[in-house]
Amino acid sequence: MTEITRDVLIIGAGAAGTTAANDLRKAGLSVAVLEARDRVGGRLWTDVIEGAMLEIGGQWVSPDQDALKDTIAELGLETYSRYREGDSVYVGPDGQVHRFTGEMFPVSEATEKVIADITERLDAMVAEIDPDQPWAHPKAEEWDTITWDAWLREQTDDDEAVRNLAFATGSAMLTKPTHAFSLLQSLLMAASAGSYSNLVDADFILDKRVVGGLQQVPQLLAERLGDDVFLNQPVRTLEWSDAGVIATTDQMTVKARYAILAFAPVLYNRISFVPALPRRQHQMHQHLSMGFVIKVHAVYDRPFWRESGLSATAFSPYELCHEAYDNTNHGDERGTLVGFVSDQNADDLFTLTAEERKERILESLSHYYGPEAKNPVVYYESDWGTEEWTRGAYAASFDMGGLHRYGADLRTPVGPIHFACSDLAGAGYQHVDGAIRMGHLAASNIVASSRDAG
């Protein structure tokens, strides 16, 4: 059993953990990063599958994500814009395929007006929300005790409008059925991107990608830490007191003055805390759960959709793949589509065989792009639900009523234990940007605390 002593122990080598560790090192504190997986990156994972480079995890960079953009620049990485020239595609409730340009789906004038009016109302509500403390809004409890779906259906009886408004935060972001989370949780999701309009604007949210893949961010940050990153080290026990922490893995013991839990809160219960965490944390963590989404990668010999003037941007709340995009790699002659299947639809697909699942998904893509979509040369499904150290995607959100009740405690340190990951972020919530912000925050809090103690 190896024993080491450091100023700060970081559990988790994703974007949050590696960011915090580098900040702490710069401040003159020693660190050890313990990672349960056999790789650095957490929910960022760039891999080569059958000769195709695929972004199995997170991949996009938005214009408002300053923390991520600053890190990308500081690491010397390059970005490129997602391909978006040409028409988008929308499939309506009757199964008809509509080509369109601009942000608004090609729906009837009446439905378009309803969507525009409710979007304006949502933008006004989101403008009042502080993403770092949505529970502080005077109407937080009211908004946290009505489901997103129910609130929308109170606004209009236009089902197509409701479905199109709902899926921006439901299937697309929180990846849960819209009856399973609150209006407040939905407003937080929008506030984290600056506005509801930003969230539904694919050209904003899915703006750029990193040449060579986004996993390079935590990988390069980890490289700077050298031998202080330890892979295949799931922490089994964490003893804590005012004096510090002692973490035990199957091969190591790490003693430190502070610890940062830099991984999703749904996994905190994989560690035995001695003594147990306070009851408030136990309750809170039982009200957080991951969403579920299958990210589908289909690689073709060429980006055939461009030949017919399509950008490959596609949406439909009526399709199995509720959204899809051109995900062709920088400088690649081949064309890649990425599609998403969320929540109940994703659950249902996993009752099928792999071959049946593939057939259903490609059939759905073919409704957007034509029969050629059924014949990719490489096909792969990112299924984070089977990942032992993730257990879902993209991130954790509260059940009904949980956000206003427990949200203020999410980042509150417990003795020497601090918390950092994208699931706890305000701006950048559920995104790599949020993970980096939380890494910076936890590190600065520890630096301040160690100065006060010193």
Automatic annotation (TrEMBL):
The keyword NAD does not apply. Its cofactor is FAD. FAD binds at residues 35-36, 235. Residues 16-446 form the Amine oxidase domain. It is an enzyme of class 1 (oxidoreductase). Substrate binds at residue 340. This is Putrescine oxidase. It comes from Microbacterium hydrocarbonoxydans.
